[in-house]
Amino acid sequence: MKVSDILRVKGGTLYTTSPDERLEVAVQTMAQYDIGSLAVMEHGELVGMLTFRELIETLATNNGQLGGRIVRTVMDDHPMTCTPETELEQVRPMMLERHTRYMPVMDARMLMGVISFYDVAKAVVDSQNFENKMLKAYIRDWPEEETPADPPPQLRAAR
């Protein structure tokens, strides 16, 4: 399974912010849409990711205050990315190794979407459930072996 399969199921909605946006506005956007990340775009290009991780770190180091900061000051300006053609078997260890919960999907310099660790886990579980269902159907339809009522004549004589 490829990342493009996840994007196809997930849909095309992409939430972005500007690096010069106030953190308060970015937080309101994330809360309004119940999302954990915003792609940070400048002049049509991805320049970073803002996730709840950066927000919590900012709150923790500033006594619970965002302090009028802008997105650029706290965003991850070197997010790990993948392409639509990246296989899920490659994405999972990448996300685990860097503790990344959100990964931008890039086609050359164009942002195609953002996948989350949840999206990846859901795709794996759905795939396994489908495979299990197919295997169970295959086993249920397994042809029964014929059991001869009487052995062939040559075996009858040998008894």
Structure notes:
The chain has helices spanning 3-10, 23-33, 52-61, 88-97, 117-140, 153-158, and strands at 16-17, 37-42, 45-51, 102-107, 110-116. The chain has a single domain, classed as CBS-domain, CATH 3.10.580. A hairpin with a 2-residue loop joins β2 and β3. The protein has 6 helices and 5 strands. A 3-stranded mixed sheet has the order 1-2-3. Strands 4-5 form a two-stranded antiparallel sheet. It has 159 residues and is α+β, with helices and mostly antiparallel strands. The longest helix is centred in the last third of the chain and has 24 residues, at 117-140.
Task: Give the secondary structure arrangement, pairings included.
Elements: H1 3-10, E1 16-17, H2 23-33, E2 37-42, E3 45-51, H3 52-61, H4 88-97, E4 102-107, E5 110-116, H5 117-140, H6 153-158
Parallel strand pairs: 1-2
Antiparallel strand pairs: 2-3, 4-5
In short:
The protein is an alpha+beta fold and 159 residues long. Helices cover 43% and strands 18% of the residues.
What is the β-strand count?
5
Low-confidence stretches: none
Please tell me what the overall shape is: elongated
Write the CATH fold name.
CBS-domain
Give structural attributes:
159 residues; alpha+beta; CBS-domain; three-stranded mixed beta sheet; two-stranded antiparallel sheet; elongated
